[in-house]
Amino acid sequence: MKLHPLGDRVVLKMLEAEEKTQSGIILTAQSQERPMEALVVEVGPGGVDAEGNQIDMQVKKGDKVLYSKLLNTVVKYDGEEYVILRQSDILAIVED
């Protein structure tokens, strides 16, 4: 079974929080901030704007993205934790 988002929604798998700073300081679990970086695992078919125009999806499965922490839904499915949000809540695609 898989999660299939509807409309312009995207399913993200949160990436692990950094355990060490760039300068080498090891962070405790309490001081690690919840990451805003995630991997796109599923993408909906797209949405429709107020005028009825098709909104194409700009992200695709496998993209690494930065997302807004404020407006999202966290779900547990099949033992994993996912974030489901609208494409407009994705702030950027991260390119390595």
Helicity, as a percent range: under 10%
Order of helices and strands: EEEEEEEE
Strand content: 35-45%
**Assembly state (oligomeric):** single chain
- Uncertain stretches: none
Separation, N- and C-terminal Cα atoms: 31 Å
Shape: globular
Tell how many strands the DSSP assignment holds.
Answer: 8
H/I helix tally: 0
| SS class | mainly beta
Cα gyration radius (Å): 15 Å
Strand order of the largest sheet: 6-7-1-2-5-8
Could you tell me the mean pLDDT? 84
Largest sheet: 6 strands, antiparallel
Walk me through the structure.
The structure is a single chain. This protein has 96 residues and is an all-beta fold. 0% of the residues lie in helices and 40% in strands. The chain has strands at residues 9-14, 37-43, 47-48, 54-55, 64-67, 73-77, 80-86, 90-94. A six-stranded antiparallel beta sheet has the order 6-7-1-2-5-8, with no helix packed on it. It has a two-stranded antiparallel ribbon with strand order 3-4. It is globular and about 50 Å long. The mean pLDDT is 84.
